[in-house]
Design goal:
With 267 residues, this protein is α+β, with helices and mostly antiparallel strands. It has helices spanning 5-18, 57-74, 101-104, 128-147, 153-164, 166-178, 189-200, 205-214, 220-239, 244-266; strands spanning 24-30, 41-48, 77-84, 108-111. The longest helix is centred in the last third of the chain and has 23 residues, at 244-266.
């Protein structure tokens, strides 16, 4: 693709910055900015390092700082959209969904190589469980993107809301996959957490309490903890029981974080 010289200069600068970030495996620009002079924001898809889709929280903090730097330096709104390696082979991830796949197929590379084929070349239909799985994936991507921007005000409220519906969406996914009836309404978030734990022998209570507290008190550090919890949740729901220990262990870690917060308030 041949771009105007000023756009090539902007992308050269962005590529130089992102190449210095050790956990960025690949990056590329997609969307309308490549084709329209009047577009005022740049969309950049990133694939970043993770362990089974769980990202080191410090990576999000660094991306938040780099996005601010890039936006200020080029005087444009730079939108970083983080993805992880688990999405590359998961056809229900946002990388492959018809909503975003066509644009990502025409990615302008900045760092490394992210080879995305047209979804039409790899699958021809979607089942109910695929759509339900995509919703779980999409909420993770939306919240990851928000971590690179801001979680204050209304953005924070939406972030917490998407997290709160994690177990509800998980139960919907299992019902669609097993062609079984729904075990509870997704509107009753407390019951969804209880049913999720009951059916899969998990203990989400610390995460549930932390989430409901976050409706009243929320900041960037809370967002990082919730993001890691959700990444563990998605790993268990979509990739199975071997990750159940990791999920429970992180819920226990949240209990320790809650205890530390309580002690600091009392002190």
């Amino acid at each position: 693709m041949k771009l105007p010289r000023h756009k090539e200069q902007i992308l050269t600068y962005i590529a130089d910055v992102l190449q210095r970030v050790p956990f960025v495996l690949s990056a590329g620009v997609y969307g309308s900015w490549l084709y329209h002079l009047e577009s005022s924001d740049i969309d950049i898809a990133l694939v970043i390092k993770s362990k089974n889709g769980v990202v080191d929280s410090e990576s999000y903090r660094i991306l938040n700082q780099y996005r601010t730097l890039l936006s200020e330096e080029i005087c444009m709104d730079v939108d970083l959209v983080p993805h992880t390696e688990d999405e590359i082979d998961d056809l229900n991830s946002p990388l492959w969904y018809p909503k975003s796949n066509p644009s990502l197929c025409y990615l302008y590379p900045l760092v490394g190589t992210l080879l995305i084929k047209p979804i039409t070349a790899v699958r021809q239909d979607y089942k109910l469980e695929d759509v339900a799985a995509f919703l779980i994936h999409e909420n993770r991507t939306v919240c990851r993107r928000q971590l690179t921007r801001t979680v204050t005000g209304e953005c924070g409220r939406i972030f917490v809301s998407k997290m709160l519906h994690g177990t509800a969406n998980a139960l919907t996914y299992y019902a669609c996959r097993g062609r079984s009836g729904f075990v509870c309404t997704p509107s009753d978030l407390n019951d969804c957490f209880n049913k999720f734990d009951f059916y899969f022998d998990l203990d989400s209570r610390p995460a549930k309490e932390y989430l409901f507290e976050s409706k009243k008190t929320f900041n960037f550090n809370r967002a990082l903890n919730l993001m890691k919890w959700y990444e563990h949740l998605l790993g268990f729901v979509l990739y199975g029981c071997p990750t159940s220990k990791d999920y429970n262990d992180f819920c226990k870690q949240i209990a320790k974080i809650k205890k530390q917060l309580t002690c600091s308030v009392v002190a």
